[in-house]
Task: structure prediction
Amino acid sequence: MQGYYIAEIVSLVFMAAALGMDAFSVCLGIGMQQLRLKRIALIGLTIGIMHVVMPFLGILLGTFLSAQIGQLTTLAGGLLLFGIGAQMVFSAFSEGPSSPMQPVGVGLLLLAFSVSIDSFSVGLSLGLSGVKIMLALMLFGAISMMLAWSGMLLGRKVQGLLGIYSEILGGSILCGFGLHVLFG
Result:
């Protein structure tokens, strides 16, 4: 019986890591914007919370939603990531003072939503599988938060090495991930 619980925890950890990898990828690009550590902490915390909220909503609303609505939310998330990345690339080429989009306010919530949208569909299946829901939600939130922090801190280090090109690289990463969400 104890082996069953260990196997369940291990599988939930791997599932949480897989769900958090998109947050890592996106945060790698965001970390190149010379963010303060306080902002990095807030972004990671917001992404972690959204990785708890989205599967919870998926569990609650799973029986009422159709597969078509799930496809529309994936499309919206991919377009949002691509748009944010394109804005970063274009602002790198603009003349005058650069003002890269900062993940604050509604922009932060949209970012967190876009990287956690896939956990919504996982929540749909979690409600039917009989796993320990609270354990799964806490693992999803904690691991995605740590991966987001890791991505931003790594991006921050890479930004120092790349200088002005880091904004182009960061925007390209976001665009690429948006395209992956849309077509992958």
